Amino acid sequence: MGANYHRLPVEIQNFYLMLSTYLQILSDSQVLPTLDDFAERINQEHQKCLDTPQTSLIHARNAGEWLLHVQAQLSPEHWQVWFNEHFTFSPQTAAMYMQIAKKMPGVNPGVFSSAIDSNPNPSKTLVFPVKPILPDSQPQNLTNEVKTLSPKSPQIEPQNLVPKPTVETRHDTSLSGFEMILTGESPTLKNSPIPEKPEVLESPVTRITINPKESIIDVEVTPINPPEPAPIEPQKPAKKTAELIKLMIPGVVVPKARPRVTSNGTYLPPRYRAWRNRAEVEIYRQISEQNITHKFPLRKAAIVIRLLGNHRTNSDIDNLAGACLDALTLNGAGVLIDDRLSCLPQLSVEFDPDSKQTGVYIEIEPL
């Protein structure tokens, strides 16, 4: 065709060019996603969030970002109708996904660096969570921002001592020539009135001898050195208390379960896996809302675990505490680097059955 192209009539050449251009436009054009496509992807991410606890935060963020995108395009009435038609999860779950999508770019990158998207087909995903998209309101260098959040304690300078006035004496050949001069200004002496007839007072350290036959005045003054003031030590700055991290996970804690080994592989029980997924999402949400200056994961910390409300009293306490610790380590939310004895020298577990709220309260003190 290329060799005989120029031999064809002009009309056929023009028709061939128009046809090739039209086919090129059709091949280059891409169909924009519809609301049904967004709903299908959000449902897929919600299901992955329940099935894969290790990467649940990434899937929750993707679902929240698409929910925010659709919510911005629709009115509140159309948004409610569209949500009720396409989703089975509650509006509270959708609000949590959208909250994670808003807060996730602002967290220290070291907190959840172990979470990697496990989707084998990234072409179906609109957002790649390997490198989160930073909003315009957030600075690009998050590490420098975290470093500037820990100000140094100001040094307290010692207070300057008030200089005391020095006394000078002058000798003269007449009585009127003897005077005492204060070199420093004293407001009490400067403003006090001068008496007309000064009284003569005897002092044990000053002896004045007047010879009536001679006009020479012999004055002998024994100086008294003022006691040296005690050195004033600068006040030591108060010891800064460690910043506590407080978390509250509502609901009944599911004890840590042993992995089930089958012919198809090893897996965790669905009930424990669902609780781990919910606990990790709740821990991440609360940490992102707090202004925490610590760098995660923490290498050493003291932890207090309080079980509040109605829990299974026949459960082993080590399994209940183990479930909470697994949700905090790198395999979970990434707050603590590990639950070994070297990383967790202090651990306290308490149970309060009379509490009105059921859940687990976790208090973390970095060491």
UniProtKB/TrEMBL annotation:
Residues 150-169 are annotated as: Disordered. One of its GO terms (molecular function) is magnesium ion binding. Gene3D superfamilies: Holliday junction resolvase RusA. Pfam families: RusA. GO terms for biological process: DNA recombination; DNA repair. InterPro entries: Endonuclease_RusA-like, RusA-like_sf. Coiled coil: none annotated. This is Uncharacterized protein. It comes from Planktothrix tepida PCC 9214.
